[in-house]
Amino acid sequence: MALMQWIHRASLALNIDNDALAVHRDGICLRFSQLGTLAMIPFAMLHLVNANWMIFAVNLAISSAMAANAWSLQRRSRAALPFWLLCVAMIAGVLTSAYFQGSYGVLWSYPALFMFFFVLPRRQAVALAAVLLAGVTAVAWVSLGGPLAARLLMSLGITLAMIHVVLNVVGNLQQALVTQTITDPLTGAWNRRHLQSHLGQHGLPAAVAPAGHALLLIDIDHFKRVNDRHGHDAGDLVLCRLVAAVNARKRHGDLLFRTGGEEFVLLLPQTPRDAALQVAEDLRQRLGEAELLPGQAVTVSIGVSTLQPGQTGEAWVKSADTALYEAKRQGRNRVVEAAVA
User: pLDDT tens digits, residue range 186-242?
Assistant: First the structure.
């Protein structure tokens, strides 16, 4: 139990679930296989000339596997040899080279270590890196002596730590960029692009989602008057305060999107019709009573639509928009439910 807790804490500290290279891994594996093949062949030939048969065989096997993978990946097929198996072969090659060649063979530990984190999911890479560190240290202890083995372990450990630092920085930057592309910069709400992904425009159609999801289309009444009378800074303040008020009311799983100038969508997952109408009415009252603009009441109109069986995401939003239009037509500052076909 204590060991598992220690492993869990170490996993959190290393942040190994942040696999920043995952989306680029296919391209990385292809380039690595191509370059690795070219790099390994001269060494295989050198060991053939020097009659180092064992090391020649290992080099030849690894370069052949890389060539086969490069050919398969170039054709957009699955790798001929799984890369985790190729990495295991790399460990065997490093240990063999370290045993027979001493310090010259040990040097292969460093490119092998980097290879793991580029071609494998990060958890697998960490596991194989631990095996490599333990194995090469043990072999170095036997062939090169304790002092050099200890220095090797420390230098490899520092290299491993720096790899994690770099990957974490890349992952954080990547996440920051993703967040920027799906967040409204003014209010901090999600933007229309992120809404589309939830409605199935870039994934499964919303029609396959379980019944019971609801959508609230919220529009600020007479927002143009706010901008005309008080300026756009005041309008921006109203938008930000509305988002803050909705965020304070919504549940953990609810999602708020800004889809237009003064228009917002609130997705309510697993919310039946009656509960969605109650949320909408509560929000309308709260926002009307909130001081969104000092000295002036600001109200909202809300269209409510519950996802129907077979309904697409586009049709779902359109039905809420029709209900919102009806709320505006009836005089604003009210909630209107979309008609069910």
Answer: 999 999 989 988 887 433 444 444 447 899 999 999 999 999 888 999 999 999 999
**CA 214 – CA 87 distance, rounded (Å):** 49
DSSP class of 217: E
What are the C-alpha distances in Å from 207 to residues 116, 201, 210, 240?
41, 11, 8, 32
CATH of 190-337 among 2.60.120.10, 3.40.50.720, 3.30.70.270, 3.30.450.40: 3.30.70.270
Is 262 designated active site? yes
Give me the catalytic one of 262, 263, 289, 337.
262
Query: Which structure tokens are listed for 236?
Result: 């921006």
In this structure, the number of other CB atoms found within 10 A of the CB of residue 304 comes to 26
280: amino acid identity, one letter:
A
Annotated domain spans of the chain: 2-182, 190-337
Is the entire prediction scored with pTM above 0.70? Answer: no
